[in-house]
Amino acid sequence: MSEQRQRVFSGIQPSGSTHLGNYLGALRNWERLQHNMDSVYCIVDLHALTLPKAPGEVVEGTMNMTRMLMAIGIDPALSILFTQSHVHQHAELGWLMQCVTGYGELRRMTQFKDKSDRLGGVSESDADEATSGNNASISAGLFTYPALQAADILLYDTDVVPVGDDQRQHIELTRDLANRMNSRYGEGTVVVPDHQIPAAGARVMNLQYPEQKMSKSVGSDAGTINVLDDPKAIEKKVRRAVTDNDGEVRFDVQEKPGVSNLLSILAACTGDDPEKLAEKYTQYGPLKADTAAAVIAELTPIQERYRAISDSDVAATLAVGAEKATAVAAPVMQRIRTAIGLVSPTP
Ligand code: AQP
């Protein structure tokens, strides 16, 4: 008898440009996993609203991100590819998860600290700050984001969540919350998921600020390789990547973050080991040239496919995805409602 396939779920925000960190840390794995796992991939448009967005920005971002995922090789025949807001159970379970998540747990989340610091930081003391200044511009949604993320994952009875290293803390919180749901409402209320973080490319750093992760919304553009950057732009960004003055090629993330980042990127693109790769180089110039060439070879076919996907293909994919995702999410939501003890709407 064949074993039941494991379910994989992951999401990405439709904000900003997809960058090399998204690709090496997460999206490349999504493509690989869909061949032997039940795969559910979500464009998390509700999460994107945790930071201010102009009207229309999320629509465009969602269309572009769907096109990008299709270009990377997410095949709607193999995976469920859909938008979070098309499946209303995300918002419903999101609220229920907020009700089992501790305030203290959310306060410990480093992503909230980082993103709220970028908006000027949270003030605990000044009452005037409640309706003006930083506290007014930092949304409650940004704070409770991990509870919605837990709902996204639990709604699909997910076994495995492939993510970059920056999401480790959120997935650990999801596991804690899932265990809490099961002990409060009964074993089997939800499936407790595991994260899967790749060995290479799990934390791609900004080329200009190698102590900061490459990111859609922060950091210099000169330090961020976008998946749609043309070869010349990629060469220039890698050539100008910040290294150090000692001239030695060695993999040492603490002491040599810039050089180690280049070695990690090269290793993730070629399938080699970063420490072994370091032995091949005595100067930064050739390391940079090889890294740029490896990145260009990886991204060029994606760019070609991206340009060939029409708006109508994207819209059709999302429509089918919404239907398939709802078919999985609705019964799980019903099971959770029953376990919690909410009155059924039908007699
Ligand atoms: N630098 C990175 N290295 C490896 N993996 C990364 N991921 C993100 N950055 C890196 C992984 O990409 C997936 C999608 O994450 P996201 O949508 O939160 O993207 P982001 O780039 O991290 O976006 P930001 O910086 O938080 O900005 P906004 O708010 O504008 O979207 C995840 O699996 C993540 O681990």
Give a verbal description of the structure:
The mean pLDDT is 94. Helix content is 52%, strand content 7%. Strand 4 (160-162), helix 9 and strand 5 (194-196) form a beta-alpha-beta unit. The protein contains 14 helices and five strands. Helix 4 (89-98) packs across helix 8 (140-154) and helix 11 packs across helix 13 (284-308). With 347 residues, it is mainly alpha-helical. The relative contact order is 0.15. The chain folds into two domains: 7-201 and 311-340, Rossmann fold, CATH 3.40.50.620; 221-306, Tyrosyl-Transfer RNA Synthetase (Orthogonal Bundle). Strands 1-2-3 form a three-stranded parallel β-sheet. It has helices at residues 20-33, 45-48, 57-72, 89-98, 103-107, 110-118, 133-137, 140-154, 168-185, 231-239, 257-270, 274-278, 284-308, 311-340; strands at 7-12, 38-43, 79-83, 160-162, 194-196. The structure holds adenosine-5'-tetraphosphate. Adenosine-5'-tetraphosphate (AQP) binds at residues 12-13, 15-16, 21-22, 25-26, 51, 163-164, 166-167, 202-204, 213-218.
